[in-house]
Amino acid sequence: MSSTFCQCSSHRYKLITIPPDYCPDGEVPFRPAWALGVPETPGVYLIHDVRGVLYIGRAGNLRRRFEQHYLATHSSLLELAIQSPVGEVEYSWICRDHLEDQRALERALIHSFRPLCNIQHNR
Question: What are phi and psi of 87, to 5 degrees?
């Protein structure tokens, strides 16, 4: 168990000292009225607050996915994190039309940020 803790601590240290190159196409507060600010295009999205990135996913329609997460997310960890926010919860996105580009970007971001509510970051 201590080796897992050490790996996680080492990763968090690297994340702070050498942050990933991440430039979102847009960002809005994660509140219902702000869904109109999210494009109806495909891409990769991040949900984050002061704790860092909570969840990373991809969607064929970013606005619809925003609304789906807000109404009832499939992740119990994300639901708990959203119900108990630390600071403002934000929804950011990077538009990508090509499905393979979306998958590659999603994997790279999950690997870099190791979001708290994604199961994939443990793989």
Answer: 80, -165
